[in-house]
Please model this.
Amino acid sequence: MTAFTFATQRLPATAEVLRQEVRDFLAEEQAAGRFQPVCDAWLGSFDPDFSQRLGARGYIGMTWPKTYGGHGRSALERYVVLEELLAAGAPVAAHWIADRQMGPLILRHGSEAQKQRYLPEMARGSAYWAIGMSEPGAGSDLSAVRSKLEPDGDGWRLTGQKIWSSGAHDCHYMMALVRSGPPGDSRHEGLTNVIVDLRAPGVTIRPIRLLDGGHHFNEVFFDDVFIPADQVVGEVGDGWRQVTEELAYERSGPERFLTTFPLLRAVVERARTLADPYLHREVALLVSELAALRELSISIAGMLERGANPVVEAALVKDAGTQFERKVTEIAERMACQMPSTASADGFSVWLAQSIYHGPGFTLRGGTNEILRGIVARGLGLR
Ligand SMILES: Cc1cc2nc3c(=O)[nH]c(=O)nc-3n(C[C@H](O)[C@H](O)[C@H](O)COP(=O)(O)OP(=O)(O)OC[C@H]3O[C@@H](n4cnc5c(N)ncnc54)[C@H](O)[C@@H]3O)c2cc1C
Model:
């Protein structure tokens, strides 16, 4: 049985110094009225100016080598910065995907030219990337991807469609997992990651509106889009291995349990004013669950720091973390004295409304909880 291991991981003293720096920066930004805390800010709050200010402070691409615009810091230092940004509900969506998974993917598998071209602008917070995995017939079963890559002279032609592409309408590039050959017996062969310039001829981006009318999701159509040969990442046909690694980055961070943190903070504050021992017990349980999740998550950051690929551990924490986020919303709903509204002057009401609107996606995006449990079961040797 391949059990998973969560070794206790301490944060270094340098990380705590950094934490104070980030807190001071965020306090200044808020005092200057440059952002309002938001639940689910890491996917929904897109603010290029804020991302560029973070980039200028060295808070993006923190672990990447300095030669590519990074800052050579540890995964644990990066963890602390993420934790503070998420706890503050800061508008980090513009650069989040590039920093979290596309930069590390290019660093690991990209060509030297790709590293030099893409990483510095990502680290400056000025280049935004979309994830091009899901398709109408390929969600949990990513190997069913059908967008087709065919050779054409010096490069390739891409035809097909992606769906649920978060923020693609505001992004410069998409990392698209596409079919370059037959799936083979494993169904994992013949897949390739390509960099698609979202302004290239033949790319059409159409919104899928949210229930509240917001524009977050897109359908992205590729109609005979030319993909230069140098925009293939790594080897043709190596897409499955790359995407598996990428998903470990996508699933392993503290955003998988801190999405509703601004609401949790308001829940604790409101609970203090209520003489309700049953509620106090529920809120205390929530906070202790958060403390346990955080320990597990910091342990994963330590694994990343040591160069490991904690696929099973990340699946476990994402499953538990997103269930925790739902619980925060449920308890807040029971405490609400009025209908939650994003237009309210009361923070509790706004954050609750945001958590209710966005909540259904927490346990779906980045791999559904059923799929994550399957990964954990396989890690335990149960399937
Ligand atoms: C907020 C949000 C943002 C997203 N952003 C992006 C993005 O930027 N880029 C992108 O590519 N995708 C994105 N997605 C899509 C997301 O990755 C998919 O929704 C997810 O992988 C599930 O795929 P699906 O929606 O096709 O559901 P399906 O795969 O059709 O699953 C439907 C249901 O069946 C269950 N199920 C499926 N297969 C199994 C199985 N083998 N065992 C047990 N149960 C199973 C699932 O758990 C789920 O409950 C986003 C989704 C959300 C909600």
Summary: The chain is about 45% helix and 15% strand.
